[in-house]
Amino acid sequence: MSDKIVAVSRSTLDHIFLDQPSIINKAVVINNGLEIDGYLGGDGRQLREELGLNENDILVGMIARVSHWKGQDLFLNIARKTFLEFDNVYFIALGSPFQGMENLMDSFRKEAVSLPVDRFFIHEFSDNVKDYLASFDVFILPSTQPDPLPTTVLEAMATKKAIIVNGHGGSTEMIEHKRSGFIVSTPNDSDEFLMYLREYIKSPELREEMSKGAFDRVNKDFSVQSYTHNIQKLFKQYLN
Q1: How far apart are CA 117 and CA 123, in angstroms?
Q2: What is the pTM of this model?
Q3: Beta-bridge mates of residue 182
Q4: How far is CA 194 from CA 76, 160, 162, in A?
């Protein structure tokens, strides 16, 4: 039996406790770390030009596998409601399905046909994530089921994005509400997503404030250095 069990988030640990309550005294949370320098220097200008956006347009993005629970349908709904209020807001979903699940992408594209083709974009996954992130004004995590510790949120924090996350899973431990982003308190509520998105759209200053808060937090608590420090500290407890 293990002496210690490490989970990437409190949310993950709580889920494990449901099946294995006996491990509560040997479990610990150590968050994953991101190599932040690898996400600096992204250039989103080319993508924005390809999409026909100017500097006053707002691009809202998500990055995720196309699957039943990653929230593409919720993202569509948020976009649909946003388009009724704003003429300068655009949405882009970056991601691909797993092999053998291409039907999910087909369904996603069919649902998106109901939205303006010049304002809602779907791109297959790209290795050049940092340039995509650099093009976003707002990053949304719409996963409809709890995500243990979504790397895409760390990536968005490292590229200084204004962020909105669904109110469950590890993302609620990554984002400090109203300091480094917004947390939707009622999971999967498109109206609450829109409420926070509306604030970002209307205030460049708020986007700047939140993006700085997100960057400061990922540097402090979710870097490779902090992860390494916490792992070493755990090992030293046993070596000593």
Answers
A1: 13
A2: 0.95
A3: 164
A4: 12, 20, 14
